[in-house]
Design brief:
Length: 179
């Protein structure tokens, strides 16, 4: 409960000096919870998160080069994800497919059921390793207008980080805040 002046819906104010939780806005309640959580949350390194290897990426999608473009599109849609890396059998990065790549294929008359991910993927997409700083990842996303950056751990794509993940890391929260 936050301390403050309680104003009822009809404009009258009470003198108890407390605003009941149910009358506080969602963002005010979340901010109060974040302040408590970020100071005491287990798993947050002293001084906060610094590298991509320290945070939990929420985009674990990876596709194979020979996956159908339609299967890729359906998985991106069902997971509400804007794109994902394409990996070889060893889990190494070979490219990236985004919603824009899929839309471009459709707009050019291609049948997504008849082409594979390797025909659409961007081979020049940026990749980061686990030692990349969060600040560098934010700058890269800003400069290159990226929504996802695949993160390589021990030579394999482990996950992709999103702007959402980086914002959570900068605030000092893990993905559990969303549940």
């Amino acid at each position: 409960m936050l301390v403050g002046r309680n104003v009822t819906r009809d404009g009258a104010s009470s003198s108890n000096g407390r605003v009941p939780d149910k009358e506080r806005s969602f963002s005010t309640r979340m901010l109060a919870g974040i302040k408590e959580v970020s100071m005491t949350m287990e798993g947050v390194p002293v001084g906060g998160f610094r590298t991509l290897g320290e945070i939990d990426g929420t985009n674990g999608l990876r596709f194979q080069a020979k996956d159908s473009a339609l299967a890729v599109a359906l998985e991106l849609l069902s997971s509400h994800t804007s794109g994902a890396p394409i990996v070889n059998d060893a889990g190494n990065f070979v490219g990236f497919v985004s919603e824009f790549d899929l839309l471009g294929a459709i707009e050019s008359g291609k049948d997504l059921g008849q082409i594979t991910a390797d025909k659409l993927m961007n081979k020049d997409h940026f990749v980061a390793d686990e030692s990349t700083t969060i600040a560098d990842a934010i700058e890269l996303m800003r400069e290159k207008h990226l929504l996802n950056i695949p993160v390589v751990k021990q030579g394999q794509v482990a996950y992709s980080v999103t702007r959402h993940d980086l914002l959570r890391a900068r605030i000092g929260l893990g993905p559990g805040i969303e549940t």
